Amino acid sequence: MNRRTLVVVAVLGIALIASTRGTRSVAAQAKRKVINAPEKAVQAPYSDAILVGDTLYLSGKIGLDPKTGKPPAEVEEEIKLMMDGFRTTLAQAGMTMDDLATVTVYCSDLSLYDKFNAIYKTYFTKEAPARAFIGAGSLLRGGHFEMQAIAVKR
Questions:
Q1: Partner residues linked to 61 by β-bridges
Q2: 11: left (phi over 0), alpha (psi -120 to 50) or beta
Q3: Total domain count for the chain?
Q4: What pLDDT is stored for residue 25 in this prediction?
Q5: Angle formed by the axes of helices 113-120 and 75-92, to 10°?
Q6: Nearest-CA neighbor of 153 among 59, 48, 84, 57?
Q7: 86 in Cβ contact with 58 (< 8 Å)
Q8: Does a structural domain hold residue 146?
């Protein structure tokens, strides 16, 4: 190999390395934005949601009464508080419940499945997101349900 060919190969190699370093994935380049409800019922060391690009990662949420920090006596009200909390967090990111892509629900009493679904389905105007409904032991603060989700802006 002559000197000129060697220089061309070296320059191309450096250009290739530089270009791959500058072309990180869109997700890696996207800035993270923390979203927190201004009136959290319970202060805890986590964010309500993290927005990365068009994807919102929502932390687990329990249906707590903001005045008491505890689940209400009526399980239907607990479900509504939890779902309303998700709707509020999504709205802060410029999204709606219909932007939810996947949801995981943890439930301390699987006999509440039908009560949960009766309320849950009213929060969507389009098709419901993918979902897992998992039986769990006791949940924080005596809640019957905890839900976490991922939303993608449509």
A1: 147
A2: alpha
A3: 1
A4: 53
A5: 40
A6: 57
A7: yes
A8: yes
What's the predicted TM-score (pTM) here?
A: 0.78
Least confident of 31-45, 56-70, 75-89, 136-150: 31-45
Write out the two tokens for 29: 């380049």
| CATH at 134 | 3.30.1330.40
Query: Is residue 4 domain-resident?
Result: no
| Residues 40-46: contacts with CB under 8 Å, at least 24 apart | 41/65, 41/66, 41/68, 41/69, 42/69, 42/141
Residue 81 lies in a domain: yes
| Contact status, residue 19 vs residue 46, Cβ threshold 8 Å | no
Nearest to 89 by CA among 35, 25, 130, 26: 35
Tokens coding 44 = 């805890």
Whether residue 14 lies inside any domain: the answer is no
Backbone torsions φ then ψ of 114, nearest 5 degrees: -70, -40
